[in-house]
Amino acid sequence: MAWPQRLRVLIWGFGPSLPVTFANTFQKHFKNWCNIMDNLARIQAFKEFSIHNRIDPFFSEDIEAYYDNPHEFSLNLKRSNHQLALYGAAHVSLRQSFFNALDPSQRVALFTSKLTAANILDWVLGQLECSRSDIIDVVDIGKARSIYKFSTHNRSHVIKEKPNNNQSVFHDIARAFQMPFAKSTFIHEHNVNWELTEFLDEDQIFLNKKDALVPLYAKAAAFGDFIELGDRHFENYIAKGEDVVAIDVAHLMEDDNQHWTKSYIAGGLYECCMLQYFTSDLSNFSSVVHLFFESYEAHAIRLFELKSEVSQTVPLIEKINQKWVDARQFIGHMKSIYVSALNNMFDRIGYKQLLIQLVENKLDLNDYQELKMYYLADYQRISTFFRSDELAVDVFMQIRDLAAKKLGITHQYFNDHHQILTQLKDQLTMVQDTNRMVQSH
After folding, report:
1. Cα-atom radius of gyration of the chain, to the nearest Å?
2. Which of 360, 440, 347 is closest to 403 using CA atoms?
3. Scanning 41, 49, 158, 177, which has its CA 20 to 30 A from the CA of 355?
4. What is the rounded CA–CA span in Å between residue 127 and residue 134?
5. Residue closest to 349 by CA, chosen among 293, 425, 237
6. Torsions phi, psi for 187 (to 5 deg)
7. Where residue 205 falls among pLDDT bands split at 50, 70, 90?
């Protein structure tokens, strides 16, 4: 099984309104099912996954506008601008299917019409030294919005709309600090930033053994923290050779980065959160924790060595110099954040497991919209109730109450779970307390 396990959503857990045959088909043939449905059926299916005041359903008018208006480059999930709105694999696959279920010729025609409307078709073709007729297929690979992978006769590329030019800035910084980055070109057209990049398969990195990934992600984490790169969840990393490459970069050296680092780690979404895959054996967990932080420290030291050598014209280098005094200060500061936030993540894992059990016992999540959101967003993913502290509802107390009523879970369960967690947390504390001597160069 590839790691992390790809999402499968247990549709039948959402209540009696969903037919059993529908659920069985979804579980067995999820991708094929999306491709054979007509749009009305997709719209109806998506309605089952809408989340009140957070993710709205699609309507026929939304889909028709996307098809008919070439200036509408992307079909976006209809997420609230005012409420936390997390999405899961079911939302993504259904949204993609409105494009991907079209015939290949229709996909190509729709894609090129949108590039033409954006005034970037000639630029794309010129960069690739090909003609429109060379484009043989296009698929939407985006999550909450459309990102298009298109294929010519011998290669595949990706075109995406960008919220700013930080991806280009990231490439310049990565080059200066000898970090990997995707081969991309950029253009600013009609007040919109665009990136044309090589296609790198997001699943390739997970063909490696988990142990081999630990130093790779530790290295990426050190660099991400060093340049205060935000939004570093696993779907924003792609394999390139023996490295992991950051994509969809939108946040760099922002003032509130420390807050978001804590939030993302507690929510199971940063590189160090892969440690949860090693918790079944305490001795192995201890070894992996030390491997991660030793790899992190080693690369942090290397970054500070390079920092003294790079040109002062490198983007954001002045901010980096102002932010970090030396490697010792950097490592100590980040370790304190990591240990505290990882403790929060581990606290949440037990509640995630209970929520899955509740759904397996036929809890109707339509009566608990916040739990429905987290079930869909977190199921068989590494994430753990991201940004739950922002909700008016205490989802953890809600799960405790439901688990007591429907599963017979007692306080002893939580006491036993706390004892197990204490052993894991002790390993993290040891790493922080035995911080090895760091020499700043």
Report:
1. 23
2. 360
3. 41
4. 13
5. 425
6. -150, 145
7. low
Quick: pLDDT tens for 211-261. 889 999 999 999 999 999 999 999 999 888 888 999 999 999 999 999 999
pLDDT in tens, 22-35: 444 444 444 445 54
What integer is the mean pLDDT of 186-199? 96
Contact 48, 58 (CB under 8 A): no
Tokens 């005041």 belong to which residue?
Answer: 53
Quick one: which of 267, 256, 271 has its CA closest to 224?
A: 271
Torsion sign, CA atoms 81, 83, 84, 89: negative
Q: Rounded to 5, what percent of the chain is helix, strand, coil?
A: 55, 10, 35
Torsion angles phi and psi, residue 158, rounded to 5 = -130, 135
> What is the phi/psi pair of residue 364, to 5°?
-85, 105
Say whether 139 sits in a helix, a strand or coil: strand
Residue 51 bridge partners (DSSP): 55
Long-range contacts of 421-424 (CB under 8 A, 24+ apart): 421/346, 421/347, 421/350, 423/282, 424/279, 424/282, 424/285, 424/346
Mean predicted lDDT score pLDDT of the chain: 89
369-378 vs 89-100: helix axis angle to the nearest 10? 70
What single letter denotes the amino acid at residue 363? L
Alpha-carbon distance of 201 to 203, in angstroms, equals 5
Q: Is 289 helix (H, G, I), strand (E, B) or coil?
A: helix
- List Cβ neighbours of 31 (8 Å cut-off, separation of 6 or more): 93
The residue type of 439 is Q
Model-wide pTM > 0.85: yes
| Residues sharing a CB contact under 8 Å with residue 238, sequence separation 6 or more, in sequence order | 182, 200, 201, 202, 204, 205, 244, 245, 247
